[in-house]
Amino acid sequence: MVDESLAANDNERLCLRLLASMEDGTFRTAVKDLCTADFTFENSGLPTIHGLEHLARFNSEGGFARLIPIIRETRKFTADVLHIASSGNVVFTERYDHFWDKDGRDLMTPKICGIMEIRDGRVAAMREYYDTACYSQEPTAPNRDFAQG
Fold first, then answer.
1. ∠ Cα 87 92 93 (to 5°)
2. Which structural domains are found in the chain, ordered by start?
């Protein structure tokens, strides 16, 4: 789970709030407050999102689950932030993301190096670097702590 107390400054806190919104299911609305209108979102091997309008349209058309079949059954998302560091308006995170199905199986666990750029107190760019082999990984055994049923 994202621990916002890891932040050493406002830029890091902003980035952790954005990641926390992915966990609590508010990402689609939180981006309006946390990101710039021209927010750019890049993920390894996937189309780049250019702006909040594009993001909203992309999500309404099925989002990343449309392109990554293994995560279509995701019912809960969590992120383990291992490290966070920043220099000026650039924030770096190292983390493991988890995509849980209703039975508590971790469908996909990318190990991510994430970079966020901050402009005027908002996230202007988010780039996620990871090995796309995770798109075809075997789900884990069920974990009751993450089961949704």
1. 150
2. 4-146 (3.10.450.50)
